[in-house]
Every structure is written in structure tokens, then in C-alpha cells.
Design brief:
Blueprint (H helix, E strand, L loop, with lengths): L2 H10 L3 E7 L5 H10 L10 E3 L8 E5 L7 H10 L5 E5 L1 H5 L22 E3 L6 H10 L1 H12 L1
Parallel strand pairs: 1-2, 1-3, 3-4, 4-5
The chain binds iron/sulfur cluster.
The site of iron/sulfur cluster has 12 residues, from helix 2 and helix 4.
Length: 151
């Protein structure tokens, strides 16, 4: 393992990097995800950082009921995230389609049909604390390989 890779693993073993994608939501859940970033919930105090580069992510948050435009795009984003990785379905939309899942609707839930989902946070929308708890609950899965590589 190179020196730079060793430094990177050391840093990454102490923080969770989250990417976030909306595959067709009403934006209600997205506002709750953004609220996690704001001072009231301040997820960075837990060592969780949100950015939009899947190649640097450990966790993918997914909102929305899954519209056809995302058929290839979501899989492509998921494939770019290095192992170990997990995806979390945020809100009722990626779990069941929620209000968008009607006869004749073009949405195609659940998102678990399209990429592996490690945890679901139900609600319309869920609270920021529930989303935060889901991310923290998956930390052992995300950190497992880093700890094994460094031991
Ligand atoms: S679960 Fe509710 S709040 Fe969240 S995107 Fe769907 S309809 Fe909107």
C-alpha cells in the first residue's frame, strides 16, 4: 500500500463520506437531508461529510420514487462508489413509491430493485435525526474493511 493510500485510509477510517441523489422526489425528503447539514443537527460533529463525488463516498443516500430517467444513472453512480459502501433509502418514496405509486404511474419503486439498499428510513418525510441515526448505524459496515486493512 502506498504512503498516500495509507494516509487516505487513516483519514477515511475516522469519517463517513456521504453522497446524495434524488431519483424523483417531491423535495420534501431532500429538505430534511439538507437540514442535517445545518447548524441545528450539524452532522459534521459526528465526522460525517456530504459531497457529490461518488468516488469518495462510503454512503449513498437516495430519495425519490425512482423515475425511468434514473435507470442507468443510479446504477452508474453506485458502481463508482468504492467498497465498502452502503445505500440508504430516505423516505417512503424509495421504499414504496408513496403518493407517486398509483395505477398508470411511471415511477418504478422500490429503489432496492435497482441497487442494494442496506437500510430504509420510512416517513413522509423522515426527521433529520432518523436519517442521521441510519447513517451512524451503518458505520461499522463502512469502517470494517479499513480497520482490517490497517491491522
Ligand atoms: S416520502 Fe414524502 S416527502 Fe419524501 S419525497 Fe416522497 S412524497 Fe416527498
Amino acid at each position: 500500500m502506498s504512503f498516500l493510500q495509507s494516509i487516505k485510509n487513516s483519514v477515511r477510517s475516522k469519517s463517513i463520506h456521504v453522497s446524495y441523489v434524488n431519483v424523483g422526489s417531491c423535495n420534501g425528503c431532500d429538505i430534511e437531508v439538507l437540514a442535517m447539514l445545518a447548524p441545528r443537527y450539524d452532522i459534521e460533529q459526528y465526522g460525517i461529510y456530504v459531497h457529490n463525488n461518488p468516488r469518495e463516498a462510503d454512503v449513498l443516500l437516495v430519495t425519490g420514487a425512482f423515475t425511468p430517467q434514473w435507470e442507468d444513472k443510479l446504477k452508474s453512480i453506485w458502481d463508482k462508489i468504492p467498497e465498502p459502501k452502503v445505500a440508504i433509502a430516505i423516505g417512503n418514496c424509495p421504499i414504496s413509491g408513496c403518493v407517486f405509486n398509483r395505477r398508470g404511474s411511471y415511477v418504478d419503486p422500490p429503489v432496492a430493485k435497482h441497487i442494494p439498499i442496506a437500510a430504509e428510513v420510512p416517513g413522509c418525510p423522515p426527521r433529520p435525526t432518523e436519517i442521521l441515526n441510519a447513517v451512524l448505524s451503518l458505520a461499522p459496515l463502512v469502517f470494517k474493511d479499513y480497520e482490517e486493512k490497517q491491522s
